[in-house]
Amino acid sequence: VLVSVICSPPQNYPLYIRSVPTENELKFHYTVHTSLDVVDEKISAMGKALVDQRELYLGLLYPTEDYKVYGYVTNSKVKFVMVVDSSNTALRDNEIRSMFRKLHNSYTDIMCNPFYNPGDRIQSRAFDNMVNSMMMQVC
Amino acid sequence: MEGLTLSEAEQRYYCDLFSYCDTESTKKVASNGRVLELFRAAQLPNDVVMQIMELCGATRLGYFGRSQFYIALKLVAVAQSGLPLRVESLNTVKDLPLPRFVVSKNEQESRHTALYSSDADNPASYSGVIPPPPGRIQVKKGSVSHDTVQQRTSTDQQESTSPVVSPQQSPPTSPHTWRKHNRHPSGGNNERPLAGPGPFWAPFSEAQPGSSTSSDPIWSGHSPPPHQENWVSFADTPPTSALLAMHPASVQDQTTVRTVASATTTNEIRRQSSSYDDPWKITDEQRQYYVNQFKTIQPDLNGFIPGSAAKEFFTKSKLPILELSHIWELSDFDKDGALTLDEFCAAFHLVVARKNGYDLPEKLPESLMPKLIDLEDSTEVGEQTGEVGYSSSPAEAPPSKSPSMPSLNQTWPELNQSSEQWETFSERSSSSQTLTQFDSNIAPADPDTAIVHPVPIRMTPSKIHMQEMELKRTGSDHANPTSPLLVKPPDLPEENKMSSSVKFTPGNTVNGYSSSDSYTSDPEQIGSTVTRQRSHSGTSPDNTAPPPPPPRPHPSHSRSSSLDMNRSFSVTPGQQQAGVVAYPPAVPPRPQPSQGAGPHVHRPVDAEGLIAHTSTSPQQIPEQPNFADFSQFEAFAVSGVNKEEEDEIETHSEVLQVEKPSDSASSLRVAKADGRVEDKAPANVPTSAAKGTTPLAPPPKPIRRRLKSEDELRPEAEEHTQKTGVIAAVLASQPSIPRSVGKDKKAIQASIRRNKETNTVLARLNSELQQQLKDVLEERISLEVQLEQLRPFSHL
């Protein structure tokens, strides 16, 4: 089970959301939305002066009995949220980090595309492929 | 069989095929019957089919289980793509098209030449039975159907365009049967799945004037759009010419020149491109045109077109933004937001193709890849990423940016095999993070790089066993290089131990403490043997000890077990080797007082030799073969040494103290009897040496402790002499004991072993003494300095 979402500020609406098991998607949407609060909390906790030193990877936002939520925020306040199944114990922190890194890289690639307007929903095939492959790896 | 990863479409398709073939619903498919027909339908040569069957394990099993079937299907796809059949290619080849199975119909047979005869009999059986690859069959625009053969054939009949060569079909499949590329009406295939290409493309029914609709059919790079000739051969068919006419109007005015030129050169281009199976190749005229366009935006051919300008330019083509965005993603190879000449040409070409109704590929086709090596734009090269599934190896690309035909027709097998690595490249953008990712990705890709580093020898009983084996082997074969150091000791006269600056005897290398300079007299030998041992350990771990750890800076070592093992080992060669393991090394009697009596007690008790170890000199003059006479030595040692030991026990609390005088005594003795130690069983030596020392277990260690614990006040010089005396005594006493050497081979081996033990012990002693000497000298120097400081005026 893997859901990844990218949300952009300030409205925090999702630019991209993809989940592997397509059922119960709404539940994941809800989870992601609620976890955005946690992300904001973590960001604000850092303080303004530490913005540059702030690490992009936020780590486990909060775990529930079913799944865990991981967060990642870029310097431009674009948030990446990933929900993984708790039963997927094989996923280590490093792997989550690498996945976020890949997401971030792909996101910057999209940004480089002049035809992409920031704030649009992400409709890049390359991005889709990357996310798909990532999810296949996990599941 | 390795695990198989299938995409969704593949999964579905394979499942359908399996159900189709699994007529009896037994979840396994016999090798004959429908499976064979299916494979024949794949239009692969028979030997390829046999290879596939073998690879997937069906021949082994005798039938196709589900997994074998899936593997076979994937291999069929691999083969059809022209890639060599390998097990690795199952998972490494990404974006493999679904395997194509030609469904033969009578009409088709009549229309195509090289068809499989076997299927001629079963045309009907295939009709609509073989589950077509999902979404592949597109009849007409808007009428997407996973449909039957009839539809396909009908559409085939409608096809009027010249057969299009699709690259992956060219290699193993019969060339002309499937070169039907059906140009999709650009808006027509709404339901086209995102999966791989379809072998059965609905023929381009009617001209779809570049009405690129929102349904952006995903088209993998393997099912590229039409053959190059078709791009310009629109004139062949009325619809296409209509397209052409529309094309310039829809794009830009400048394109009229191109279209005119292209129309006129249709035949030439067809001839040219017929040799290639690459529909994405840019012809010379096209290229020239693109270059001219590039110049209008950016006069410098080596410069970049910034993203905004490119956006403006391509927006004029009236393609939807989504498609333009995709084109950009494909063509901006280095993801830098700007287009180089090559990238621009690729983008332009894609735009043109799209305008003509060809779907955009998922990945950049090879021929459109920008030349990766550009010596002028090194930054660009360094940031190669992109969606290229098979990025051509940079070395193969011509370095210049001249508008030459970018013939990057890399052999697919190469690319595919390296695609795994390249794939990882593509996942990275040109951010600084790529560097780190690069390393981490490359490392696992090369599992052969086994970093061999010296492994510290574990002081375990098994080690003793190994040592035993070593000694045994060396005993049996002196020339045995695998136990080099063990071979050496017997050869080296024991006097060397005294003179050499060995830290530890080479015999201890087996224990892992040998340093390369164990014998100064034979440094090269030792070094070579050490290295040999190191290397050897990598190869035959069962035989040799692991490579010795790096030479320790100090001969002392915190673990006494090595010495114990040595001693115990040397003690028991006379006995069975098993016995060695059975006897754990004697606990180094650190606390001298407590241990003072210990060895004494031990000696009479344990005649085996442990006590001999403990009683041997600190430098571990190994017991010589005469263990039989050990008892004599024991008694001798006890008698001779006890007094010294007891004295020492009282004075010093450390083992070393006791050992020191005994060591020195034994060393002296040893020194005297150098030459006679060689093949004789110097059991006397160890035992005599043992006399002087109670706990020989960790000879160096206690010595070191003393060295460290005490300051310069300690009369180390005395110890040195004492030690030497001990050794000399030990050596001297050796020959006095009758040998049983020549009796039999075993005795000889035992004696050799014992000699080696003695060697090791002596070498260790030597190293200890050397160390002490150094310390003493240092102390002396410091004292002298202090003295001079205290007497400043003496020098005036």
TrEMBL record, chain A:
Compartments it resides in: Cytoplasm, Perinuclear region; Endoplasmic reticulum; Golgi apparatus
Keyword Cytoplasm set for record: yes
UniProt GO BP: endoplasmic reticulum to Golgi vesicle-mediated transport
Chief location category: cytoplasm
Domain of life: Eukaryota
Family annotation (Pfam families): Sedlin_N (PF04628)
GO cellular component terms listed in the entry, alphabetical order: endoplasmic reticulum; Golgi apparatus; perinuclear region of cytoplasm
UniProtKB keywords: Cytoplasm, Endoplasmic reticulum, ER-Golgi transport, Golgi apparatus, Transport
Family: Belongs to the TRAPP small subunits family. Sedlin subfamily.
Protein known as: Trafficking protein particle complex subunit 2-like protein
Gene name as annotated: Trappc2l
